[in-house]
Amino acid sequence: MREFFPKGVPITADPNYLAMVAAEINDRPRKIFDWKKPSEIFAELVEADASTD
Questions:
Q1: Quick one: which of 15, 19, 28, 36 could link to 40 by a disulfide (CB 3.0–4.6 Å)?
Q2: Is 38:32 a contact under the CB 8 Å cutoff?
Q3: How many angstroms separate the CA atoms of 9 and 2, rounded?
Q4: Rounded to whole angstroms, how far apart are CA atoms 52 and 50?
Q5: Residue pLDDT, tens place only, 5-47
Q6: Phi-psi bin for 12: left (phi > 0), alpha (psi -120 to 50), beta?
Q7: How confident is the model at residue 29, as a pLDDT?
Q8: Hey, CA dihedral for 16, 22, 25, 26, is it positive or negative?
Q9: pLDDT at 30
Q10: Is 24 helix (H, G, I), strand (E, B) or coil?
């Protein structure tokens, strides 16, 4: 988060910028997810939940 919002700098309320930050953060592979992206994990969970209904 500090990459986009350095300490001491106010966080912008611009929805376009905040959406870009969220998209970029969710598009980074994570070691904890066996190098999958958080967005991929979320999609898998939604798909798994949809198949149980």
A1: 36
A2: no
A3: 10
A4: 5
A5: 888 888 888 899 889 888 888 889 999 999 999 989 999 999 9
A6: beta
A7: 93
A8: negative
A9: 92
A10: helix
- pTM as predicted: 0.58
CA nearest to 34, candidates 23, 44, 24: 44
pLDDT at 53: 63
* Residue 32, CA atoms < 13 Å, CB-side half-sphere: 3
C-alpha to C-alpha distances, 50 to 31, 33, 37, 38, 53, nearest whole angstrom: 26, 21, 20, 18, 6
What is the three-class DSSP state of 52?
A: coil
Q: 20: closest CA among 30, 12, 29, 9?
A: 12
